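Query form — protein Ropporin-1-like protein

QUESTION: What is the three-dimensional structure of this chain?
INPUT:
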Amino acid sequence: MPLPDTMFCAQQIHIPPELPDILKQFTKAAIRTQPADVLQWSAGYFSALSRGDPLPVKDRLEIPVATQKTDTGLTQGLLKVLHKQCSHKLMVDLDDLEQKWRNLCLPTEKFHALLRLDPPMEKDIEWLKFLALGCSSLGGSLNSAMKHACQILTADSEGGPACIPFKAFSYIYRYLASLDPDISRLDTESYLSSLKDKIECRKNGMIGLSDFFISKRKV
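ANSWER: The structure tokens for Ropporin-1-like protein are given below.
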């Protein structure tokens, strides 16, 4: 015998008071991030939310760059999301990093392609090195990679000078230059020394986009 239709009235339905705001923030985050796979991204979003971790959400809506030379799916905005999620640790577990990568709907084969540029010896990787590899993949030149790194690491507002500590700049520059057989260590150190002299008069030890020019070399 079929069960009778169940009737509910508004007084019988309990809506958790926090639910409307959770759904509102989730919807805004999805619109801003524009994930390629909403279900995959949503799983990562609510998993991070339940743990109190940084959410896989872009700061703003990002217009796709049609001129990107290598179609990795990676963008500066997505790399910045990964930075927010991973930068609190010096070393990042590769399995955890790969899961965060997948949660942003990025292709797994591209993740492993980045790692092959400088294969890690252990099951973790220094976050700044992975960030540098990601930056190099966005534009293909050392010049572009350093610009992306400054724009991701800076605390300046968008459109500002994108200043970052010279220590961080020189670390990333040395690392990427070391992967290019056409750039000698002497050239690297000479260039960084000239930059350091340029900003030495400042007390904050910061360098911005207007401070440097790097000859375009492939990385």
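ADDITIONAL NOTE: The domain at 140-219 is CATH 1.10.238 (Recoverin; domain 1).
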